[in-house]
Amino acid sequence: MFARRSIGLDSDSSEQPRGFLTRLFFNPAHRISTRLTREGYQFVFLLGFSLVAAIIQNVNLLVLLGGSLAGLLLLQWRLCSRTLYGLRMQRNLPRDIEAGRRFFVELVLSNPRPWLGSWWVIAHEKVIAAKTNRIAKGDSQTLLVNVERVLPRDQSRVRYECLCIHRGEYLFQRSEISTRFPLSLMRGIRSLGQEAKFLVHPMRGKMDPNWRTKLELPRLGLHERRVARSGGDGEFFGLRDYRSGDAMRLIHWRSSAKRNQLLVRQMERQENFEIALLLDLTEPANDNGRTVSSATRSQISEARMEATEIAVELINTLTRTLLVQQNGIVTLNIADGRENWKFRISSVSQLSAVLDRLAIANASPRSNFSSIAEYTFGTIAIGTPTIVVSLRDQSESGVDELRAVSSSMLKLSNIRWVNVSNGEWNSFFQRGTVDEA
């Protein structure tokens, strides 16, 4: 089944025009422009030549020929414009679009007309990076999607493949549909809908099997096990007296028969561990205000942008790994100068909001790391393992800031600081790759 988000692309019709003449001349559904094609220009030249020759030579057959050609041109104009009249288009996108992974976009073209179908319709789609997307700045794709026919009061579905290499916000520009039906002498063009935005989530990498050892993390979680008083799934722990409400399947019949009273199995159940992740996208400080050339400044900017992508991909992959392999609870906070959203997730199905936030995360010279760290360490339990993924070294502003905001030094005992700018991530993390063409 094609899990999707639907974007309607009907013409702008929030206020329907009233009156027949107003609907006829000002209704967006009637705004269809027609242009001559290369074949059309050749046809018009032949039509003009026939009429001029008929007038000069006074040849009736040339007059009939010119009239026939003019009738064909009029038929082309009429069918070309009426083929696009009233068509509606809807775009369906996948719910999760990942950078570097191909995805399918489904177009649904509907024809509400009762008697006239549409043929040879071409949908013009253009995807560009939004102005706020600094990573994919300048990225664009133009696609032409052919719809063979749409019968009256019916719809046709077509799918095309798309690839966004970088994460961030993208948009579909105002779509157009066109046709050259039936003789290809003219092209009818009609605009549909408005610009539609969508988010591309960060790329997914791969963690090393021994990443916890290489990160020197302590045992995950403080109280990893607890006794389930009312029963449940887990390993066998012991026996206890039957209590009202206990499930019948937990009764240990052999022991109950020996002691002449009902005994139930007491199970030991795994409790989900908790781990805190902090993504610090504060740009490192300049080298004592030293003046650098424009070329060097450009290299520094590119290096920071690359480090930002590594940090976001690492957080994305680490969160997925913890949820899938460890079956725990992850607390995630992002410091990038924006308003902080605290994420507390326990399953992969809850990742949608996290991925949307990571898609628009960017490095910022303004640091709100102190307030984010203060909020994080004020809400987690003492001893909760914490991983800070940052663009800067901990000696620059990390540990000192954490110690300044933490009321309990015990909360700092399980912190692992990862500076992606110096390449230390290479030992436990492998970045994702872009799908080949």
Please sum up the structure shown.
With 437 residues, this protein is an alpha+beta fold.
Strand-pairing-aware structural class: alpha+beta
Unreliable segments (pLDDT under 50, ≥5 consecutive)?
Answer: 11-17, 220-233
Query: How can the largest sheet be summarized?
Result: 7 strands, antiparallel
> Total number of β-strand segments?
21
User: Count the helices. How many?
Assistant: 9
Query: What's the SSE pattern?
Result: EHEHHEEEEEEEEEEHEEHEEHEEHHEHEE
- Proportion in helices: 25-40%
Strand percentage: 25-35%
Radius of gyration: 33 Å
Subunit arrangement of the protein: single chain
- Quote the distance from N terminus to C terminus: 25 Å
Compute the average pLDDT: 80
Principal-axes shape call: elongated
What is this structure's SSE topology?
Blueprint: E1 4-8, H1 20-26, E2 32-36, H2 38-57, H3 60-84, E3 88-94, E4 103-111, E5 118-129, E6 140-150, E7 154-162, E8 168-172, E9 175-179, E10 186-192, E11 196-200, E12 206-207, H4 211-214, E13 225-227, E14 235-241, H5 253-259, E15 263-270, E16 274-280, H6 294-326, E17 329-335, E18 343-345, H7 352-359, H8 369-379, E19 386-390, H9 394-405, E20 415-419, E21 429-430
Parallel strand pairs: 16-17, 16-19, 19-20
Antiparallel strand pairs: 1-3, 2-10, 3-4, 4-7, 5-6, 5-8, 5-9, 8-11, 9-10, 12-21, 13-15, 14-15, 17-18
Helix pairs in contact: 2-3
